[in-house]
Structures are given as C-alpha cells and as structure tokens.
Amino acid sequence: MFRIVAIIAGLGLALVASAEAQTPRKGGTIRMTAPYGSSFTSLDILTTQRAQDEIYAKALHRSLYIWNSTEGKPVLELAKEDVVSGGGLVHTFKLRDDAYFHNGRKMTADDIIWTYNRIMDGTKAYPGARYVRVIEGAAAVEKGQAKEISGLKKIDDFTFEMKLTEKVDPGFYFWNAITSIYPADEAAKESFLQKPIGLGPFKFVEHVPGSRIVLERWDRFYKPGKPYADKIIVSVMGEAAARDVAFRNKEIDTSVLGPAQYVAYQNDADLKGTVVEVAEVFTRYMGMNPAFKPFADKRVRQAINYAIDTDLIINKLVKGKAYRATSWLPLTSTAYDKAMKPYAFDPAKAKQLLADAGYPSGFEFEWTTSQNESWGLPIVSAVIPMLDRVGIKAKVKQVETAVLAEVVRSGDYQAFVYSQATGPDPQAALKCFHSSTPQSACNYMNFKNAEFDKLIDEAGQSDDAAKRTQLLQKANAVLYEEAPVWFFNYNKAVMAVQPWLKGVQLNATELTHQNVEDLWVDETSPAK
Predict the structure, then answer these.
(1) How far apart (Å, rounded) are the C-alpha atoms in residues 192 and 208?
(2) Which PANTHER family match (predicted)?
C-alpha cells in the first residue's frame, strides 16, 4: 500500500480538520487557481498529462477509481465491486447504475470500453495509454494490429470484465484524470472539445482561454447531498506574485506557494495558519536524451549528477521546500530504499568520468526549460556555473510550460528539466522506463536496459508483495546506476487555503487536485 508522508505547517492541521467538526454548508462559490502555466492545454483531458488541466478535470470528470487521501490509496468510484479471478489477472467490475453524464444519459459498460479503446489509439499518443496498456490486447490496438482491446469484455450494461497482463491492483492504473470515462455517443463529436461532458459533481459552463474555467453543480451527481458548492471557478494564475496579491485580497481561495512565498507566509502571523503541506509523489529532474552523443554514455550522465551541488540548490533556492532525491522513487513510495544514498557533490570525480568517457574538455548542450520557479529557469541558472566548472557548457532554451510538456513527449530536446509523477504505485512509476513503454507515454528519456526490463517484468508477475518490493528496489537501483536523469528532488507541496474553505484533502499525488464534491465554503466567504 502507498505510504503517505504528510507534513502540516503550523495551524494548517486545524484548517484541514475543521471540516470534521462542522456541518458542511450548501451553496457558495469555490475559487481555485491553476498555477502551472498561462493557460489550460485542452478541454479534452484524455489528451493532456499536465497537472494544470487535472485541476478542473477533478470536478468535471470521473474515472473508474478515485484517490482517497485519508486512506492513501485508490478506491472504487464508478463500480460497486471488483471480483478477482484468473490467478489475479481477471477483474469483473459491477458498475453503479446511478451515474449520469451531464447530458442526462446513464453511464454503462459500453462507455468504459469505448473510452479505453480510444485512449489506445496509437496515432494519437494519448498519455493515459501508459496505464491502459496493462490490459491484455491493449498494446495490439496501439500498434494497429487490432481494433478493440481483447482483454475487455461486456457482460451486461453494468458489468464488464478486464483481463490484465500483470498481477497489479488496477486501482493504481485507473484513478487519474487521463483515464476519465467519456460518453461514447458524444465524445467523438467536434462540439465535445468546446463543451465537454463528464460524470463529475460539476458540469461545464464556460472556458475563457488564458483566464478561467467555470463549472456549476450537477444535481444528478450520484453521491447523495454532494457537491456542497453551487459553483467552481478555476482561474489561470501562473505568476506567483499575481496569486499572492489575489490571495491577500481574498479574491481566491487557494494558492500554490513557491519557495519565496513559502518563507514569507511562514513568517507572517496573518498568513501562517493558512499554509498546508504534503510530501508529494513527484520527482524533479533533468532528463538527458541518449540520442545526443555525450548523453549516450552513462559516465557522462553520472558526471552531471556529481557536478551539481544539489543540496545547496534545495536549501538556498528551493528554500527547503523539497526533499533530496536519490533515485526515481520518492520518499512516500512503498519501494523507497532508505539505505540508498544520493550522488555526492564531487566535481573532481565528475571531471574524471568525463575524461574516461572521452570528453576531457567537456562539451556543450541545449537545455530546455520553463520559467517554473521551483524546478525551471531559476534552477537551471544555478546549475549552469556548476557544470561549467567541469567543462560542460549549457545553452538555455526557454519555452512555455505547455510547450515543454510536448517537447518532452516528442523527444525534441538534448536535455530538459521537469517534474513528473513518480507514484503512488512504484510498479506503474518505474514502468515508465521499461523499453516497451513509448516515449510519448512516459519513457521520456527513451531508456532501454535489459536488466531493468527483467526486474519490472518479474515484479509484475509476482504474487509475493515482499518479493515484488525487493524487485522494484533493485530496478530503482539500476536507474540510480544508469542515471538517465539528474536526480534533483522530491517535491514538498505547499498551498495556502483561505479559512472559509473546508474539507481540503492532503493529496500526496498532487495537492491542487481535490475531490471537490467534499469541499465547501462557510458563510464568511466573500464569494456568494
């Protein structure tokens, strides 16, 4: 089971727990922020893996499972039960019969099967394919060898069978927004891209590009009495300064805090109690393209790790709002190896490795980055002189966050800096480096290693939880040795929440992603 490491700042515990002591109030408006760029990528959530887009998608859509932050695991959402057979590979789902799409039509097994087949369209490179691929026959659809996923079988309108290729918990594969269930009769229409239809507690009202998305309560939502709020407004605020002003002026209810704001809010008596924190399952890193000759040699990749004073950057630039990364799996992972030590800061060793690899005078590369203050341009700017000391010259290529996401998926880079989900399931997280995983899905460094593949494959077929964890730790150690990335940090997510917003969940998979049907505002909220 996924293990949460939650750290709550000051009075933040009371802020989150207060909902338990009060009766939720009906009505009002929740004003959330989308802090990770200047726009939303798409209103088709199946096409985008950005955390920015999933903020609105958590209100508009629903997947087969949902993340339960209290239990620290996915739980059934669109199904009432899952009967396991076939040696742990066959799952028979009995769907709930009270889930209605926002066009008024009841969801059936056909919608789920249609959605998963759509995600596996190999010509589209949908990011959710990394998860659906665990279903038998899904890869054949992706490769154009079949039209439908053979491992999906409709039993009746509210029952379907899913046969997997690995002995894994499907909850860890079908809980996030990029596997949201669409209405099969509507999603193929052009109008769906302008006015999406979901199963979530709120229905779409409007999208003002570069500004906001507005959603209203769906009165036929299948959870009695929910949602509590009448409306949700998700405003695009990529600039930390803009969020700070808006939060202080009580114009927004939530605001993600960067390193500088984190320190400022902790030292402000009026704001300290608004801060909540959680150790997220995200790894920040610099990815290296093995098609660029120097990065094809693991000694060069290791030299990058030795050349950077990572602890100094975390302490001085990130202001301690992070945890030092060792390998890929974060502290909150069940397969995290406490005995593993991070790469030391050792410029002399970096120079020796470069010389051994045939680059005694170093080399030059292009580094693609966004402006993100926690893992983007400020970090790159601090790293450049460290690399320069060992002879490596980096040229910065700055792009918008939305553009960076596509650059990463397409492989059109020499190096990039990014933040990627590395949980909650270690098997799924490490599968991103399996040679069978396409670059467009999540194998962004196009990593290929036979030893690693074997360990992941064995873990996927193991019935023994302890053995599976051991195999995954070994695979994680292979990544440490091969160093396809500079291992930077595991994120500590920090968000300021106005005192009138109740029911906030410490979601370690992404703090901004809230099960919004459980949120409510009291009568002190200025937004009516």
Answers:
(1) 16
(2) ABC TRANSPORTER SUBSTRATE-BINDING PROTEIN (PTHR30290:SF83), PERIPLASMIC BINDING COMPONENT OF ABC TRANSPORTER (PTHR30290)
CA angle 170, 218, 43 (to 5 degrees): 65
Q: How would DSSP label each residue in 312-337?
A: HHHHHTSTT-EEE-SSSS-TTSTT--
Outline where 154-292 has alpha helix (H): 240-248, 259-266
Tokens (6 digits) for 194: 């302008």
Residue 378 backbone dihedrals phi, psi, to 5 degrees? -60, -35
- Closest residue by Cα to residue 338 from 351, 323, 355, 322: 323
Residue 127 amino acid letter: P
Question: Which of 46-80 are b and which e, b meaning 16 or more Cβ less than 10 Å from the residue's Cβ?
Answer: bbbbbbbbbbbbbbbbbbbbbbbbeebbbebbbbe
Read off φ and ψ for residue 352, nearest 5 degrees. Answer: -65, -40
Map 118-174 to HEC letters. Answer: HHCCCCCCCCCHHHHCCECCHHHHHCCCCCCCCCEEEEECCEEEEEECCCCCHHHCC
Residue 353 is which amino acid?
L
Residues contacting residue 104 through CB under 8 Å, at least 6 positions apart: 220
From edge to edge, which strands make up the β-sheet containing 29-34? Answer: 29-34, 231-236, 212-217, 202-208
- SS3 category, 250: coil
**What's the pLDDT tens digit per position in 302-329?**
999 999 999 999 999 999 999 999 999 9
336-to-33, 473, 519 alpha-carbon distances in Å: 32, 7, 32
Token pair of 518 as six digits: 């459980």
8: phi then psi, degrees, rounded to nearest 5 = -110, 130
Q: What is the mean pLDDT of residues 506-515?
A: 96
Backbone angles phi, psi at 459, to 5 degrees: -65, -40
pLDDT tens track for 167-221: 999 999 999 999 999 999 899 899 999 999 999 999 999 999 999 999 999 999 9
